[in-house]
Amino acid sequence: GVEVGPQPQGVARADILDKMRKIVKHGLDFVQLFNEGKEFPPCTIEVFKIMEKVDYPRNKNGEITAVIHPKLQDQDWQPLNNGDPLFLTLDGEVIPYHGNSTVYPTFINEAAYYEKKQAFVKTEKIKLSAKHLRSSVP
């Protein structure tokens, strides 16, 4: 499956549709070249590995007491460092990020995740290496 976003639920956006078409075409091109016996050289790629889901701050009744800080909003896949603003309470207090390493938040403030108690997902940037690849079918 391919999920390309972000976009609000029920909205069809031409730019997102174009990105989806391009990525599906690249996937199909790869399958065709692989089936034709093309050998792909070893490679390394940076990816984001999910570490944990982070909920909004809540009171003892389970009600949200802070929103995503404006400096974090719309910053998916951007580095978040110790001390950076994370949440903003309804009283205007900044809640900073406390962590031992830089993380890369994603799905920040997505409406579909409110009911799942998820403000964002913390990811870490890692490198994956692949050996050469070639079809064994002649």
UniProtKB/TrEMBL annotation:
Signal peptide: none annotated. Residues 44-125 form the AstE/AspA barrel-sandwich hybrid domain. Pfam families: AstE_AspA_hybrid (PF04952). One of its GO terms (cellular component) is cytosol. InterPro entries: AspA/AstE_fam (IPR050178), Aste_AspA_hybrid_dom (IPR007036). GO terms for molecular function: hydrolase activity, acting on carbon-nitrogen (but not peptide) bonds, in linear amides. Coiled coil: none annotated. This is ACY2 Aspartoacylase. It comes from Calyptomena viridis (Lesser green broadbill).
